[in-house]
Amino acid sequence: MASSLEDVQTTDLMSELLRRMKCASKPDKRLILIGPPGSGKGTQSPIIKDEYCLCHLATGDMLRAAVAAKTPLGIKAKEAMNKGELVSDDLVVGIIDEAMKKPSCQKGFILDGFPRTVVQAEKLDEMLDKRGAKIDKVLNFAIDDAILEERITGRWIHASSGRSYHTKFAPPKAPGVDDVTGEPLMQRKDDTAEVLKSRLEAFHRQTEPVIDYYVKKGVVAHLPAEKPPKEVTSEVQKVLSS
Predict the structure, then answer these.
(1) Is-catalytic flag, 163?
(2) pLDDT tens sequence for the chain (242 residues)
(3) In the annotation, is 70 catalytic?
(4) Residue 155 annotated among the catalytic residues of the structure
(5) Which of 8, 138, 208, 236 is 20 to 30 Å apart from 31, CA to CA?
(6) Radius of gyration from C-alpha coordinates of the chain
(7) Which of 41, 107, 123, 151 is catalytic?
(8) pTM for the complete prediction?
(9) Do residues 213 and 118 make contact, with C-beta atoms less than 8 angstroms apart?
(10) 168 is catalytic
(11) Given 70, 134, 188, 205, which residue is catalytic?
(12) What PROSITE patterns would the database entry show (predicted)?
């Protein structure tokens, strides 16, 4: 979307003007959400995004979009992917840098899924520093592995309708079958105990040092992510209004 209003469609113009009026009084915020899979980041980020007029930067989606749009960075990323290599940290930071120029990112951003390593955090800070900006808060969705395991491995879905159940929190009427059709339920492959175990190990190994890195900078807020979503939302609001 263009930052000058000339290129905005008339119907979008009103909503864009209303958005800018509502957002004008909001403080700038540059946030990082960190937490293991199932810790609730995905539930909270749209709420934070709307409340503070931030853009949501999901690095995986941004990479795919840059590749599809054949931007100079996207072309480089595609070359790496075609060779079966990981996309370099510099490229990802470059794509974040580009995204920050969009009007929707004028008030700041939420980063989710990046940085995953301390090296990435350092590169991100360097890039922000050149722009005269910095990370304002790192929201650490702290939760015990055992609670996560119960939360995630208890999820079962009815494949054709997408209805979801939880063995403890929202069980089907009859174990293992859909309430409506009586068809068997299945588990997503990411929701099994083995997959979760390896994802949690990777999180502890790579990403916990990132939390320590930002703790030293005094910007980390630890959230009680095992609490119900509404309570986590009010904790987030407390942290961000201080």
Answers:
(1) no
(2) 445 666 667 777 888 788 778 888 889 999 999 999 889 998 899 999 999 999 999 888 888 888 999 999 999 989 988 888 888 999 999 999 998 998 889 899 999 889 999 999 999 999 999 999 999 999 999 999 999 999 999 999 999 998 999 999 899 999 999 999 999 999 988 888 899 999 899 999 999 999 999 999 999 999 999 999 999 999 999 999 87
(3) no
(4) yes
(5) 8
(6) 20
(7) 41
(8) 0.82
(9) yes
(10) no
(11) 188
(12) ADENYLATE_KINASE (PS00113)
